[in-house]
Write a structure and sequence with these properties.
The protein is an alpha/beta fold. Helix content is 33%, strand content 29%. It is built from three helices and six strands. The chain has helices at 13-19, 23-41, 84-101, and strands at residues 50-54, 60-67, 70-77, 106-110, 115-119, 122-128. It has a six-stranded mixed β-sheet with strand order 1-2-3-4-6-5. The longest helix is centred in the N-terminal third of the chain and has 19 residues, at 23-41.
């Protein structure tokens, strides 16, 4: 996998809240941090079975999980998917990474209802954070 800048997560979301200023940006960051902590609880290890990925075209994937040498799943985290521009950005990044990493197990964790959608010929699971 390509080298990408490191991301920093904290175990206590209260710390993130106390240092953030922009509400919508803060909610997205809190959600991403919450997903990271949950992935740790599920036994994923950063740098070994849990990664951040940037595609050749500089599109960001929040979490890539791996079992052995096989990419298991790609996970985007987006608090609010109601904006068409945001939705397109997040889903296009997943599709691009899916092709590069040969993975069809695609997820978006968000703050809305759970649905499965087709995007550019691939099935993507939109999962509510409460069900993750």
């Amino acid at each position: 996998m390509g080298k990408a800048p490191k991301k920093v997560y904290v175990v206590d979301n209260g710390f993130v809240q106390s240092t953030a200023f922009n509400l919508s940006e803060n909610l997205g960051r809190l959600l991403e941090n919450q997903v990271f902590v949950q992935l740790l609880r599920r036994g994923y290890i950063p740098g070994q079975t849990l990664f951040y990925y940037r595609t050749r075209n500089d599109k960001e994937i929040d979490f890539v999980t791996r079992k052995g040498t096989k990419v298991e799943q790609l996970i985007q985290v987006c608090y609010d998917m109601t904006s068409g521009k945001t939705r397109k950005r997040e889903l296009d990044a997943l599709i691009e990474a899916a092709e590069e990493l040969h993975c069809d197990n695609l997820f978006v964790i968000h703050n809305d209802q759970q649905v499965d959608i087709d995007w550019k010929g691939k099935s993507i699971n939109l999962i509510s954070v409460v069900n993750f």
